[in-house]
Amino acid sequence: MPPMPCRFQLSPPALPLGTLLGPLLAVLAAGCAPGPPAAQDELPIYSQIKNFQLTDQAGEAFGRNELLGRVWVVDFIFTRCPSVCSELSRRMRSLAWGRRKDPRVGFLSISVDPDFDRPEVLAAYAAARGADPGNWTLATGTLKGLRELVNTSFLLPMGEGRDAAGEIAHSSRFVLLDRAAQVRGFYSALEDESTFELQTALDQLLASQATAESEGK
Fold first, then answer.
1. The domain containing residue 29 runs over which residues?
2. Tell me, what DSSP letter sits at residue 133?
3. What's the whole-model pTM score?
């Protein structure tokens, strides 16, 4: 039987002290505690990442199987981006550096410019930003495959090609994936408050994972 909430109200009519103290002391002896806290809402599941095939900065295949078993933060960039990509990568590096000793967490930057961003280009971009290949992967694929992945699995837009300014339309959001490759949240990568919310959600997923493992699930 759960402990009773500490809520006692003495009625106005005077009663013998012993009549009041007896039951009251019995309740206190049994343990008086606040009621159980309300269960925290779980993060929503927006979509399931479908099978895909990319190539990372080392020239190795990277697909859905590589996502399984870790919590991931994903963003979308391209190395000759004239606008937000440098800031996205700066913030991604900060997140990755802060989690560099936690093997449960991975970071993935997907280039939306596959014609230019070959593995060696991605490798140079990663090295220039101090990316640790152990926890920060950069990858790209075919244009058709990328568009399908971005649109149907990540539920985000992707442009048809470079415009006159050299831009390729793409999202500036961080996407949070759980260890089952499910999308659990979208966060503005350019807003400090939103990236703080991302880290809070990431910790929530890790805590849920630890609980599941302790319960043998």
1. 1-37
2. T
3. 0.80
